[in-house]
Structure formats: C-alpha cells, structure tokens
Amino acid sequence: MTKTTALADATANEGLSFDLLSQPWVQVIRSDGSQDELSLLQVFDQADGLRRVLGDLATQEFALVRLLLAIAHDALDGPADIEEWAELWRDPGCLAPVQAYLEEHRERFDLLHPVAPFLQTPGLRTAKDEVFSLNRIVADVPAGEPFFSARLPDVGRLTFAEAARWVVHVHAYDTSGIKTGMADDDRVKGGKVYPLGTGWAGGLGGVLVEGGTLRETLLLNLVAADTEGLGFSPDDRPAWRREPCGPGSDGRSATGLRDLYTWQARRVRLHHDADGVHGVVLGYGDPLASRNMHRHEPMTAWRRSPAQEKKLGRSPVYLPLEHDPARSAWRGIAALLADRPEETSSTGGPSRLRPRILEWVARLVTEGHLSRRFLVRARVAGVRYGTQQSVVDEVVDDRLVMPVVLLQAQDPTYALQAIAAAEDADRAVRVLGDLAADLARTTGSEEDGPKATARAEGFDALDQPYRDWLSAMAETVDPFEHRDTWQRQVRQTVGRLGDRLVAAAGDAAWEGRIHTDTKGGTLWLNAGLADVWFRARLTRALGDAGSPGSTSSGEGRPVGDDGPPTPQPTPSPDTDDAVTAPEVHV
To answer: Could you tell me where the Basic and acidic residues compositional bias lies (predicted)?
Structure first.
C-alpha cells in the first residue's frame, strides 16, 4: 500500500487519456484462430470476422460480453420484438448504428478522464488517502494468496488495456468481505465497510449462448423486449448514461438488462502515470439483492429457496442457481433444460427455472427464425468463493453444445431423455465408486480415496461420449431409442473401467478378508465377490440389455409424454436390496 493525495495524482497526470473507442484493449479470437486486441469501434465493425471475445479468465470474458450487449441494446434501442430481431439477424450490417452511438458517448469511454473516467468514481479516496495494490482488482491474485501463477507474487503495474478489462471484471465478480471505507460514504464504521456481497455476476451461474461469430453471439443474446417472463423498462440505461457514481450508494434498484449488465457494484479509481496503472482505490458501490430477480436477469438458472420463503413469509422466492465446480456442465444439464414443472409445489411455481436466455433461443426456433436443428452452444462461467466470499476458490469454465429441440416447451420428451441420460451416467459412476470402495475393504485399506478416484475416472471417460450423444439428438427421431443407445454405451464404458479395477486389485484382494456389514453380519469379502456385486449394481442402475422390461430393451417405455421409466435404486451389499451372491459366512 502507498500513500498519495488525489490532488497530487491529478496534477501529475493532467492531460492523459486512454480512449476505449480507438485504443485496442478487448482481446479477441479471429475466425482464422489468430488472436488480436481491438478497440470497441473495431470490435463492433469486425464482429462478423471474429470468433469470440477472449478474457484473462472465463469470468472476464462473460463480463465483457455483457458490456458489449449493453452497448448493443442501447445503441439499437431494442430489439422491441421478435420481428425486429429477425430483421437484425438477416442484416449483415445490423451493428452499424453502434458506431454513431459510441461516438456520441465517447467522453464516457475514456479510462483516464478527469471528470468521468470509464466505470470509475472521480476523486474516490479513503480518509487517509491510501492507494492499494492492483491485487485488489486482478482476480488471478486474490488478496494475500496467489490463485494463478501468471503474476507472482504481486501485481505491480498494468497496462491501460489490462486495467480496463479488470475494471469491467471487478464490478461483476469482486469478492465480498470487509473493505476499506471511502471518504463521504455514510456506511463507513471505524474506517471500514462491512460485507455487502460480491459483484452482481459473482452470484450467478452464468450462461450465455455462443454463435459461430461474435456478431451471432451478440444477436443470440440480444433478447427482445416482448419476451415473456422478463421485465423491460423505458428508463433502463447503462452506467455511462448515468451521472458518475459518488462514494456510497443511493440504494436504487436495477431498471433492466442494460443496467444489470453494467451494474456498479463497486466504487473504483485507478491511479496511473504515463506508462500505465500502478495502484487502485476500491470500495463498495451499489449492493443488489438477488431474490426474485429472475424477471430481470436472463443469464442464469434459478432455484426455489424454501429457507428464504420461510424467512420472508412469501412464496415463491427464487435465487440464482450457481455452478458447482466439481460438476461438468453436462452433469448439471437439468438446470439448463427444464423449469421442472413436475416438481411444482403446492405453493405455486416450479422448483427451478432455466436461464431465460435459453428460453429466448427456444422461442426463436418455435417461431421459425432459427432451424429446429440449430445447435445451441451454451457457455458456462462462474466463480466459487471461499471464506465468507472474501476469496476466489475456483473459476468455472465450460461449454455444452446441444440441439435446440431440447428447449422446446411444447414437447419436453427430448429434454427429459437428455436429463435422464445424465442421471444414468451418474448412477453408473456411483456404482463404479462403490466397486473401488469394496476392493479397498478386501485388504482393509482406506476407502474414500480409491472411491473418489474411480468416480473421477468414470465421469472423465463419459464426458466426451455424452457431449457427442447430446449433439446427435438433433438428428434423432426416437429419443427413447437414443437413450437406449446411451445406456448401452455407459454399461460398456463403466464395465471396462470396473474390469480394470478388479484386474489391478492384487493378490491380497483376491484372497480377501472378513467384512462386517452395518447389520453386524460377517462375510468373507474378496475381489471376486466385489465384482459380482458390481455387475448386479450396474444392471440395476441401467437395466439388463435385451431383457424384457429393462430400461435398455425398449420394453416398458412410457406412452406419449409420461417421461422415461423410473430407474431402480442402486443395490448395496449392506441393504435388503443387495444382490444374492455366493458368500462365505463366518
């Protein structure tokens, strides 16, 4: 931490400018795979030749795309309805009005502007005129402990381009925790402001739809104002069309998409010289409660919160459904595909709401503006915070390609089979983990480590096959038969992994030992018996291929929209459902 005065800093750097409209600062990947850095004007002008925006982190990319969307929404003042969107989709030059719009607001896109610096608070200072390390805004170096090794042990200086990207990111994903209070902020107590939550996007399970080019990506996420389930206000506008924020907060609520995409969750002021940025002042800005914001925020799934409903005495209450870093996107596909009306409670409202951005794409197909075979590329990004949200533990980054037929509300059959297929994989991998635990028991070894390793290997082996199977649903006539194919593949893949575990068990496992079950009974457990249990469990989890009435044989399928057959619980050697197998009791 260093000390200076705002007056001295302003005097030393008078006349400096970094115009984000003309200076390159947005990292991109071109259609030919090469990387570049462009200005805002260039990004919109060349959007048809760009594959995507590139961030230092997936979360930075997500925040930058939302910034571009806020610009596009405001410049086009819409789209007002789906017909207007369709005209934009057909017009290669549809983003041309953005150029004039940005020129009109050029002054607000200067990172170093003395009166209205981009997404910053002019003259922001602490009572002691402290200027802090850039570690406070660079998310790959959380305060006190490096997260990535790209910058060790400190962030001493950033280029203006880097600083601009991190300013966008800090509003979206900054950590919570106790922060130094800013002068003239009435929330300061003893020089500090106590936790007010993360940046707005930090509480989301971020989802956006990617197209083949950046132009397509922007348009696919450019939701029309006549979209059911989302609220739009004529007063909605982004941060640069508001007065620059002062210290503290006026306690206002978000007015709509443009406001949320540029929500000023922090108060920031960069300290710089002619060669770049060397320090920052960072404090809390406008906190925003996430309860029941599903009518304003389209880029996340939502979940019912019984705890909040009980606390507030009203129902339903929805909170953002955050990503689990331990689960690939396909394993959480249920949150992306369906509002789960079958789980609707007596108090009204489904238990989950899928991201409205996917609902919007489904509507584009339903109304004939996109092909039924259109493949949705869902980009998933988010953060898992630790220690009372004061540090970043993990960053989530994944993509899932799926046919739009999965999103159709009129016929949920495809979606239900895709969800059931992911559950097939989950049950089968659980069985594989049980085999590893049983093999460990045969020698008296610790069980948790081998079990976790086996499960990780199982999900890894099924990851790409499931993604390929899901994409192939675009050409599938019979989703039930398609799931049968998947179950056979899961059985073969997990069966082979089980064979390897048994083969590698060693002589001690084949000899075995006395095992006492939860009911106090004893038996001689060895690798052979563990293998028998494994085969029986796998059959119960996936059905016996070719047998009448099994989930794989085609028998017992539901008629119409009744959904997939209900899978049986996985048997266990310590329950009444345990498979009958040769056992040597002692």
So the answer is: 234-244
